[in-house]
């Protein structure tokens, strides 16, 4: 891979619009490409690839940024939200906030929240909780892990909050769920009802 010319890197760091017709840059970790003037967070230099035009970036499987709309391209909202959903599905166990998601999706938190709710019928937080509880159920039914361990594995590090959320979503605590539906371990930790 060619090194990034210093003037291009400076244009990216300074969001220099005068370079917008000169090149585009893609970020390997997100799979998104932008104009030099994009106001998204400055990526790590080692994750950046330079493209002469948007078509080259797309031919390398980079998606256009929703914030700066490189070369006038724009993903339909449904496709954009599906990309965010896929990213959540792969990173559900990490600390996820609306800011994290909007950074990944290259949009404002407000726009992401509103569009996500319109497309999916629920907020990003509600979707994250649904994914986490679904994975927790899988672990309860298919492992000997404790409730605390399972909470940690699905990104809910506060055990009391995990138990409360689980009960809110399933109408029983994780231990009750495991007993009721044939999980593999008797829980020894007392759960708050």
Automatic annotation (TrEMBL):
Its cofactor is Zn(2+). The keyword Ribonucleoprotein does not apply. Its EC number is 2.1.1.-. InterPro entries: Ada-like_dom_sf, Ada_DNA_repair_Zn-bd, Homeodomain-like_sf, HTH_AraC, HTH_AraC-typ_CS, Me-P-triester_DNA_alkyl-Trfase. The keyword Transcription applies. Keywords: Activator, DNA damage, DNA repair, DNA-binding, Metal-binding, Methyltransferase, Transcription, Transcription regulation, Transferase, Zinc. Gene3D superfamilies: DNA Methylphosphotriester Repair Domain, Homeodomain-like. It holds the Pfam family Ada_Zn_binding. One of its GO terms (biological process) is methylation. Residues 82-180 form the HTH araC/xylS-type domain. GO terms for molecular function: methyltransferase activity. It comes from the Bacteria. This is AraC family transcriptional regulator of adaptative response / methylphosphotriester-DNA alkyltransferase methyltransferase.
């Amino acid at each position: 891979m060619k090194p990034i010319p210093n003037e291009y890197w400076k244009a990216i760091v300074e969001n220099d619009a005068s370079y917008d017709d000169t090149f585009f840059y893609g970020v390997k970790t997100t799979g998104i490409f932008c104009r030099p003037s994009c106001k998204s967070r400055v990526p790590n230099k080692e994750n950046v690839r330079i493209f002469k035009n948007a078509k080259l970036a797309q031919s390398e499987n980079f998606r256009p940024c929703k914030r700066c709309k490189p070369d006038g391209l724009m993903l339909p909202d449904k496709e954009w939200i599906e990309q965010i959903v896929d990213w959540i599905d792969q990173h559900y166990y990490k600390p996820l906030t609306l800011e994290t998601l909007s950074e990944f999706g290259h949009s404002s938190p407000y726009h992401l929240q509103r569009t996500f709710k319109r497309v999916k019928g629920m907020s990003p937080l509600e979707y994250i909780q649904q994914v986490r509880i679904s994975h927790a159920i899988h672990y309860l039914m298919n492992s000997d892990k404790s409730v605390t361990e399972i909470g940690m594995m699905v990104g809910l590090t506060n055990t009391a909050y995990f138990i409360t959320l689980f009960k809110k979503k399933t109408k029983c605590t994780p231990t009750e769920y495991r007993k009721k539906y044939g999980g593999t371990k008797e829980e020894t930790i007392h759960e708050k009802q």
